[in-house]
# Entry
Amino acid sequence: MKIAIISDIHGNLEALLAVLKDIGHQRVERVACLGDCVGYGADPGAVLQVLRSEEIPCILGNHEEAAYDEAVVEWFNPQARAAIERTRELLSDHEIEAFKYWPRTMEVEGALCVHGFPPRSVETYLFEVPRARVAEVLEELPQSLCFVGHTHTLQMIAWDGERVRNYRLSEGTLALEDAKYIVNVGSVGQPRDGDNRAKYVIWDLENQNLEIRYVAYNIARASQKILDVGMPDICAKRLW
Ligand SMILES: [Fe+2]
# Structure
């Protein structure tokens, strides 16, 4: 079985549709989404509609949380705050209310999914957790594989019971060994890793490997729509 893990779409409909088209050619049986479906992008409502119609399960990201909880917005920088305020205007009350019921975690074929950091943090960034703490958390975690998003940067951390190893991931396939892993699947709609393509990961359960996929999409269209809808300019510029 192959499962596609996508994250941080951020209202970028063009990137999401390009990724789903690519997934359609990879003999993937299931797709799971790790949150931040909205915020920054021009099409939060259309993105939610596509995820619903494709029956893709989603967990809570900090931008969904910020859409209904003002206390979360206090942690946002001014641009992110302006973007979430515009995002609220673009969504219906019903869509915003529904975020309150999104789960913070889910399990997919024995793998834990959480937006920020295991076991259930929506807000913690992977890069801010000291190695010793990562080792503690992975040692205690019942699952041997945990997928996260949130940083918009592909990354993998392995714990073999003795040491923590940190890998920067890039396009291609890598084998999973006898270790516990946290895998950051990067971002579909708002990459921050120096490559402007959409990123996602396919987990192949039979062959125990991960395939990191980069997908080109119509950035010009997505960024123009961000400007047209009145999001902060930085949200459009960042896509390039
Ligand atoms: Fe995000």
